[in-house]
């Protein structure tokens, strides 16, 4: 990509234009008038793809839209901004969005309706209505690595019919809500992370790339449906422990700085005045993950940031994250993301 600077307003304007076109037309981006406005060196567009490379003055990374067919659009990115960013889009057509947030967090605001924070390490579901304006908020200096799948209403109905009858009813109830999985988001698996990495780092181009992405997307959707059928109902007794919310928040705050070597559960329970069982179950009910999973997630997200910054070698990153040997770090990273740290760094195009 070239070195020409692009302002945030410029990106937002073209993102708005192409985003609405992708989601409101059954055909691909035309090579007519719209194409003539996408001439900047940091922006590429063809019949099925729109990609933006962020200028260093804005941040680093990229995001792109791939129109896979009339029912499926993939929106993926690996980016970090130098300031808080708010990108807005006007929605022409009702659809559903499955967001896979590997790292970072994205706040979604539906103007005049509702706000929602898509959590990292989770799959969230968003029902978007025609005529709405949506703002995506990206916090400053946070590395966001994600894939979002935009699915037509008719396609989601087809997916629903693939499920057993009882699960069909459950999914339809969620689809009727604005953010159907809020509070019950599904954990990203190693398989999901591996597929996302492959989607973002395909070496193919043109129709072959579109075909490959579509294949990976179908695998992600199949895996999501299988997980959905096995997703247990939330425990209402745990979700109702409002009086302990502040205590769980204290644990969460403690782990912001002690995630590399967290205190033993016994010590944490003593600090906040809860027994270990209530602590474990309550933390999981509040944040959707165990304390150890939360710490591992923060460690791996920090690893991604250090790998992308390229300020340290693998051994130094391993030391920074508290691993006794770099091989331990490499194994943990591979198990979590499905790819070796050196390959993750090598595939970074920014």
Automatic annotation (TrEMBL):
<keyword id="KW-0805">Transcription regulation</keyword>
<keyword id="KW-0238">DNA-binding</keyword>
<dbReference type="InterPro" id="IPR020449">
    <property type="entry name" value="Tscrpt_reg_AraC-type_HTH"/>
</dbReference>
<dbReference type="InterPro" id="IPR009057">
    <property type="entry name" value="Homeodomain-like_sf"/>
</dbReference>
<keyword id="KW-0804">Transcription</keyword>
<dbReference type="InterPro" id="IPR053142">
    <property type="entry name" value="PchR_regulatory_protein"/>
</dbReference>
<feature type="domain" description="HTH araC/xylS-type">
    <location>
        <begin position="249"/>
        <end position="347"/>
    </location>
</feature>
<dbReference type="GO" id="GO:0043565">
    <property type="term" value="F:sequence-specific DNA binding"/>
</dbReference>
<dbReference type="Pfam" id="PF12833">
    <property type="entry name" value="HTH_18"/>
</dbReference>
<protein>
    <recommendedName>
        <fullName>HTH araC/xylS-type domain-containing protein</fullName>
    </recommendedName>
</protein>
<dbReference type="GO" id="GO:0003700">
    <property type="term" value="F:DNA-binding transcription factor activity"/>
</dbReference>
<dbReference type="InterPro" id="IPR018060">
    <property type="entry name" value="HTH_AraC"/>
</dbReference>
<dbReference type="InterPro" id="IPR018062">
    <property type="entry name" value="HTH_AraC-typ_CS"/>
</dbReference>
């Amino acid at each position: 990509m070239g070195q020409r600077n692009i302002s945030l307003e410029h990106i937002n304007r073209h993102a708005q234009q192409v985003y609405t076109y992708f989601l409101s037309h059954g055909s691909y981006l035309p090579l007519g008038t719209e194409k003539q406005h996408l001439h900047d060196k940091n922006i590429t567009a063809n019949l099925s793809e729109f990609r933006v490379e962020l200028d260093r003055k804005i941040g680093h990374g990229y995001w792109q839209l791939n129109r896979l067919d009339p029912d499926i659009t993939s929106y993926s990115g690996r980016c970090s901004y130098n300031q808080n960013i708010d990108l807005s889009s006007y929605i022409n057509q009702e659809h559903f969005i499955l967001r896979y947030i590997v790292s970072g967090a994205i706040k979604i605001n539906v103007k005049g309706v509702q706000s929602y924070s898509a959590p990292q390490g989770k799959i969230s579901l968003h029902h978007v209505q025609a005529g709405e304006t949506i703002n995506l908020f990206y916090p400053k200096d946070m590395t966001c690595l994600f894939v979002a799948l935009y699915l037509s209403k008719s396609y989601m109905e087809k997916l629903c019919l693939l499920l057993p009858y009882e699960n069909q009813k459950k999914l339809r109830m969620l689809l009727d809500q604005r953010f159907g999985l809020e509070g019950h988001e599904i954990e990203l698996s190693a398989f999901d992370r591996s597929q996302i990495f492959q989607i973002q780092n395909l070496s193919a181009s043109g129709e072959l790339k579109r075909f490959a992405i579509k294949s990976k997307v179908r695998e992600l959707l199949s895996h999501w449906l299988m997980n959905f059928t096995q997703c247990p109902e939330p425990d209402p007794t745990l979700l109702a422990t409002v009086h302990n919310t502040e205590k769980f928040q204290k644990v969460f705050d403690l782990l912001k700085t002690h995630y590399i070597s967290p205190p033993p559960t016994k010590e944490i329970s003593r600090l906040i005045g809860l027994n270990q069982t209530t602590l474990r179950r309550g933390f999981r009910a509040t944040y959707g993950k165990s304390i150890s999973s939360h710490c591992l997630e923060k460690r791996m997200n920090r690893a991604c940031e250090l790998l992308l910054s390229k300020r340290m070698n693998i051994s130094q990153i391993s030391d920074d994250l508290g691993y006794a040997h770099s091989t331990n770090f490499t194994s943990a990273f591979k198990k979590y993301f499905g790819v070796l740290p050196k390959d993750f760094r090598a595939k970074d195009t920014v």
